[in-house]
Amino acid sequence: MKALIGVVLLLLVSAASSGGERGFYRWVDDQGRVHFGDRPPVGQGQALSLPAGKTPPVDTDQRQRDAERRKARQRLLDVYEEERRSGELARQKAQQQAAKRQQRCLQARRKVSTYERSQALYDRQPDGSRRYLSGPERRAEIEDARQHVEQWCDLD
Question: Can you say how many angstroms the Cα of residue 105 is from the centroid of all Cα atoms in its chain?
């Protein structure tokens, strides 16, 4: 067992020491462009010395917090988008209702105007004949038409 642990430790140490031996190079191509890399073309490249330093430890908690922030931001953006859509639908519905109300107001005003200018009002009978309304019936129809104007028109 001790021999196995010794072999594993030896492998880890040799792998760690061989990983840091790579160099970085700078070279200029035929068009005059500067390139950087870890393997220069044959016969070209100037070795760069980079300061040895440890890479900062990976902060898994920070990554997790960043991921949570991104998710929260996306949820917030989704909520805003949904509110915008529902607001747009509400505005469209209000516009449709206003147009419908305006149309009914116009119809009600025309009806009142027609009734007030006419000499006589009548009802069509099922057989196609006309039954003329009496004075009180005519006044009741005109009053009903005026109530429709009040119902559908904004009388500010």
Answer: 37
